[in-house]
Amino acid sequence: MYKKKGIIFWIEGLSGSGKTSIAKKIRKKISEKYGKTIVINGDDLRYIFQLKDYTANGRVKNFANYIKLAKFLSNQNVNVIFTVVGLNPILCNFLEKKVKNIVRILIKSNIRAITKFGKKKIYQNKKNVVGLDIRVNWPKKVDIKIVNNFSKSIDQLAEKILNQISKKINEKF
After folding, report:
1. Taking the model in full, what pTM does it have?
2. 19: domain range?
3. Residue 30 lies in a domain
4. Is the Cβ–Cβ distance between 40 and 24 less than 8 Å?
C-alpha cells in the first residue's frame, strides 16, 4: 500500500488492445501481493452511467470522473486496476497532477493489428473513435509500456507486466 492508500494501476491503450483482458489476468497476483484489488473498465462505467458522449470533450469529462472514482476507492485502501482508452495529452497532464499513488501502464497496438486479429468492430464506425477521427497522442511518461501485436498470449503479456509492476512499485513507493 502507498501511504495507507491503495495503488491505482492505470492501463491505457486503443480499443481492442487487450487492456481489460490483461487487467483481469493480473488482478489476482496484485491482490495477493498488495491487498484487495478491483478491476474497473471504462466501457462498463459508460454502460452503468449511460455515458454516451464519445466526442473528444465528452471523453475528457468522463476521464476526469474516472480519476475521481479511482482516487476515492484507493483512499479506502483498495487497489484499483482501471482500464481506459485515454491517449490524450490533456488527460495525461490531469492524471499526473491529480494522482500520486499510480502505476501507469500503456498497451500499445495499432488499429490494423487489432482489426486483423478480429478484436473490435468499433473501427468500422469511423465516428468519434480514438485512432480514426480522434487523434491518438501516445503518452510520453508511463511507468510500463507493452506492445501488443497479438503474437503473444494475454497470459504472456500479463506476466511481463506483473514483473515490471514489482520493479516500479519498489522504485516509486
Report:
1. 0.88
2. 8-172
3. yes
4. no
73-100 in b/e form (b: 16+ CB < 10 A) is bbeeebbbbbbbbbbbeebbeebeeeee
- Express each pLDDT in 79-125 by its tens digit: 999 999 888 777 777 777 878 899 999 999 988 888 877 656 666 66
In a domain, 139, yes or no: yes
Q: Is residue 1 a part of any domain in this protein?
A: no
- State the total domains in the chain: 1
Residue with cell 490524450: 88
CA atoms of 91 and 106, how far apart (whole Å): 14
Residue 126 has pLDDT above 80, yes or no: no
Residue-wise over 130-162: b if at least 16 C-beta within 10 A, else e?
Answer: bbeebebeebeebbbebebebeeebeebbeebb
What CATH code is carried by the domain that includes residue 132?
Answer: 3.40.50.300
